[in-house]
Amino acid sequence: MTHPTIGFIGAGNMAASLIGGLVAQGFSPQRLFAADPNTAALQALAGQHGIQPCADNAAVVAQAEVLVLAVKPQVMKAVLAELAPAVQARRPLVISIAAGISIASLCQWLGGELPVVRCMPNTPALVQRGASGLYANAQVSPAQRAQAEAILQAVGIALWLDSEAQIDAVTAVSGSGPAYFFLLMEAMTAAGEQLGLSPATARALTLQTALGAAEMAVTSDVDAAELRRRVTSPGGTTERAIAHFEQSGLRDIVAGALQAAAVRSQELSEQLG
User: Fold this and answer.
1) At what angle do helices 13-24 and 142-153 cross, to 10 degrees?
2) The dihedral of CA 54, 61, 136, 1: what is its sign?
3) What is the C-alpha separation between 175 and 122, in angstroms, rounded?
4) Stated pTM of the model
5) How far apart are CA 233 and CA 251, in angstroms?
6) For the segment 11-46, what is each residue's pLDDT rounded down to a tens digit?
7) Is residue 1 in a domain?
8) How far apart are the first and last CA of the chain?
9) I need a surface site. Which of 70, 166, 176, 261 has the fewest CB within 10 A?
């Protein structure tokens, strides 16, 4: 990929993770620009990666062939209203990582149709293990799709969606998903302590088991159900625990939780847009 100039409106954790991932993959920091009200954090980011800090958002737009919107959803409308004339004049590829803001709203606030990719990353992007769902509008060219994909792949996997509505499902599965696994880790650690392990031992065993199970699932040529069957010996301890999960309705609990998250994602989109 020919490296475009990329401008970041907002330089918080997710933007910083994208910048770090791009630089780690050999992207020239001289072609990365960012602005953020938190000047101390912006200067720290510039010092760490060698990117170009900008005095304001307009200066970022003036440089950007790709414009990454990484501000809080609640302030997006006000930020874009100020930038609309400059963005329309330059017409960069716009990539939004803000939750709940539709492409239609982004284009409206930016003063007209633009090539826009909306994506939903998740927090493991902070350690280059992210999972992102992407959706592009009709104005995005094949070359711009490749650029957007490369940017998100700098911090993990990036999967294209068939419709913008699927962003709500991505939010429910992977956007909010890390918290589900953290909750299970909390519960397993607490249960290990109740069984007599020290807090440190229960935590270490839980976290390493989660890491190992995830690595096995990612690298295996079979699905999670088959991996589960392979470690569930008939009449053994694992079978007893799995039976308890099933009898307690774990699958229904998970399905209901993800449905609730998807509905809330839809609600937030309506409120913010």
Assistant:
1) 100
2) negative
3) 5
4) 0.91
5) 21
6) 999 999 999 999 999 999 999 999 999 999 999 999
7) no
8) 33
9) 166
